[in-house]
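Bench notes, afternoon.
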Amino acid sequence: MRGSKHYFGDTELDEKLKQRLVGAAVMVVLIVIFVPILVEDKGMLATDPESMKAPPWPEQRVPTFTPNADGSANKLPIPDLVKEPAERVVPPVVIKQEVKPSQPVAASTKQKRLSSWMVQVGSFSSKKNTDALVKKLRKNGLPAHYETVLVKGEKLYRVRIGPDLERTTAEKFIKQIKREFKLTGKLQAYP
């Protein structure tokens, strides 16, 4: 085709197309913003001067000032602004109850902590051995993990099972690892 221009790659045509698209987008935005304002219910606009009045001023008493004969001032009276209470005020109900401690006071001041239980299976210096044991324990359904600690400058990995809120569950873990792995676990309070 002689003298035909390609739609893609022709910069002049691309610029015109971009300008038209931007113009169309601007028109759509303007329509979306201004049409609702023009079509909006006129009742919402307060043009009635009667509806635009401010509320009346509250009634106040102005204290009077009367000087004494010697020129000193009297104390100003405190104005009584409230003629009567708007609503009845009910005093709060106070229930007095004598509490007798069942334990000595020193024992009752100690705060009880919610504790859980865990089983320490062992401590290893080799991460490879730690990972292998944790994998075996998890494979048998035990919630095993390890913690890294420094003991006398040496990095150790503690393999643990738990924590669990019930001590009896942790004791069952000890029996299970003794039976299945021939390992002795140590019951510990956590944290």
